[in-house]
Automatic annotation (TrEMBL), chain A:
Entry's transmembrane regions: 520-544
Listed SUPFAM superfamilies: Zn-dependent exopeptidases (SSF53187)
Origin species: Brassica napus
CDD domains assigned: M28_nicalin_like (cd03882)
Subcellular location as annotated: Endoplasmic reticulum membrane
Protein name: Nicalin
Keyword hit for Glycoprotein: yes
GO BP, one annotated term: regulation of signal transduction
Automatic annotation (TrEMBL), chain B:
InterPro entries documented for this protein: TMEM147 (IPR019164)
Descriptive protein name: BOS complex subunit TMEM147
Keywords, in A-Z order: Cell membrane, Endoplasmic reticulum, Membrane, Transmembrane, Transmembrane helix
Protein species of origin: Brassica napus
Subcellular location field: Cell membrane; Endoplasmic reticulum membrane
UniProt keyword Hydrolase, yes or no: no
Predominant cellular place of this UniProt entry's protein: membrane
Bilayer disposition of the protein: Multi-pass membrane protein
Bilayer-spanning residue ranges: 6-23, 35-56, 62-81, 93-113, 164-183, 190-212, 224-245
Record-linked PANTHER family: BOS COMPLEX SUBUNIT TMEM147 (PTHR12869:SF0), SMALL SEVEN TRANSMEMBRANE DOMAIN-CONTAINING PROTEIN (PTHR12869)
Protein family membership: Belongs to the TMEM147 family.
Source domain of life: Eukaryota
Amino acid sequence: MAEEKNSKQRHHRSMFLESMYPVVALMLVLVACVELCDAATVVDVYRLIQYDISGAPFGSRFSSLNHHAASLSFQHGADLSRSVLILPLRELDIAFVQDYISQKQSLGGLLILLPQTFRPGNIGGGETQGLRILLAQLEKLLLHGNIPFPVYFAFENEETDTMLADVKKNDALGQQATATTGGYKLVISVSEPRKIASPTITNIQGWLPGSRADGDSNQLSTIAVVASYDTFGAAPALSVGSDSNGSGVVALLEVARLFSTLYSNPKTRGRYNLLFALTSGGPYNYEGTQKWLKSLDQRMRESIDYAICLNSVGSWDNELLVHVSKPPENAYIKQIFEGFSNVAEDLGFQVSLKHKKINISNSRVAWEHEQFSRLRVTAATVSELLTPPELLESAGSLSDTRQHVNEDSIIKGVKLVAESLARHIYGHQGKDIQIFADNSSLAVNRFYVKSWLDGLSQTPRVAPFLSKNEPLIMALKKELEDYTAEVSIQQESLDGIFTFYDSTKASLNIYQVASVTFDLLLLLVLGSYLIMLFSFLVITTRGLDDLISIFRRPPSRKMKIA
Amino acid sequence: MEIWEVNQSFFFFNLVAFAWWSSPDLQLALWWRMTLFHFFNCAILTFGPHAVYYSATPLSEYDTLGTSVKAAVVYLATALVKMTKYGFQSQEALKAMIGFIDVAGLYFALAQLTHRNISQNHKFQAVGLGWAFADSVLHRLAPLWVGARGLEFTWDYVLQGLEANANLVFTISLAALGSLMWLRKNKPKTLIPIIYTCAVIIATMPSITSYLRRVMGWHFPKVVGFELMTSLVMAFISCQLFILCQRPSL
């Protein structure tokens, strides 16, 4: 009787479980296609720029990432093609990175951790000059190399620090991070980068007419003040270029403000028109400046007496340089330079003249004034830089942050330009008059300079990634509208030898994964726990004999049939 | 062992061996399938003991599945009542109410529902089992499904499974005490207050754990450990009380 019941029970149970088994398997298969992504840690990361020059590829050519994390403490000869190498800037070994890039070793990805001090908007100081130099070297290496794996920059925080410490510990133990040994998995899921179809460069110009005495204003000469506002750097989403050329833009805006105050009153309006231009395309051989000049009416262009270009005036102390392409013996150059040196003397610093001839056959445009000179307009660049920057360098690198720009330098530069312009316009050359004296109504506004500098230092400005109606461009336009009579925007497409690819910013998901061995171990533990529970319950409720009889059932059944 | 068991273990062994020896590419491809592994582990930890309890004890022989199902339905009904009560009352009164509603539901399942002719001994076990299973499914299945399949590994779901185990023991003890309180008429007078105290302790367990978590700031592992210990202690006490109360009726 009991045996019948037992066998019936067994039959029931086996049927039930047998029918469940394919259902469970089917469920597992069906839902195996769904992958859930909810990482405990998400970090903002910024991709290395990807660009072509005349078809030759540069920068990082890939963007998506799905590999295990590895650190520099990995074993020699380990295969890193399926790992993302995490490099904190503080422990960077340039030679190692160079080897990896030049020997085309395969690497799953590179994540460079920058100290928080390099974050745009972070005012706190504390990092050393050594880190900046290292960062500059790294940037140069990465920008000019063709890198077949994704390279991302991120800022150090608590989570990345703990992850890195863990990864280092694992690596030191010699466990290579694979699917079986656990560790951290870094996932960036973005689509493959695409070419930016026709990147636009936007030039903004403001026209401040002078007072017409007897004739009409068309006969008045014009003086132009120009600065290029866009940047280029290793990480376009971080390229804020505080000094190159945020300082120039701020100086231009302040000069415009001062002259607009002067020109607002007809009695103090000078006999010169003033033309303020914020040009784009600076890092790309000043293409924007060239296009802007060519778009100007020829008569307008011919009426330009001279142009002052501002490039990096934010971190100098005693000496500012005036770069020219016409020989210093030229009468106009002499006049301009004399004006500058007189004012500089009064203000207590020094200006020097540097001459660099233009090589017509070379397409490289080293300074902005060269674009003017090529169209036979007298121009000079006021800058703190001694030598012209190389192509795509000093145009807003990662180390060009707000902390290293000094408002005082910009203010001194503004005073220099404004005073010398004013003395020229109002005919006070050589006289000891200070028009924009401190504590006067025409004083240089320190707060204005500071607030614009702070704002620009948090705005990345790489031209191909700026849309046509970018808030920055609208803001600059509005600012010039406040100070000048006529503002016009010129939008051109950046053609020529440069091609850019999108995908500059992404979110990195960091998953802490357990290895397969851990899961198997857990399964083993759980299996034995359930078996023990089963045995315990059978023993306590039915007695030990029943437990033994469960395992002896098949032989007894066979015997029964036989 | 049954044939299906042999089949299953064989299949599993093959899967594991294949995963182990295959190339890194395939290992990585299997990676996201392995995230279901953790879900499977936590699921058997959370729901396995219920199945084991049912099959190991004489419950399965006396076919008490119906009772368990009915108890599960009553649990769902009480859960619904609790949810509707949420909007109307403040935090503290709510916690007390929840305990009371739970006990009321259990009373209904034990005393009011007509079951087939099952001995009292098995009745409370079946009711407790059904109740605990419904509780686990309602409160733990959804988070497990959503969370344990992700790439990120946390101990949360393993702890949740352990909590489910503790909850099973608690519920069965509470059902035992409940059956003692409401179904057994002749109890030794001295034991009655002990029975009631134990029942109150178990019924207010949720508020005790939330108090520990919120006010004392205990972390989840500590709370689960406490729950497991208390559940074993309570089970032992309830077992003893049950045995003591059983003697006079013999």
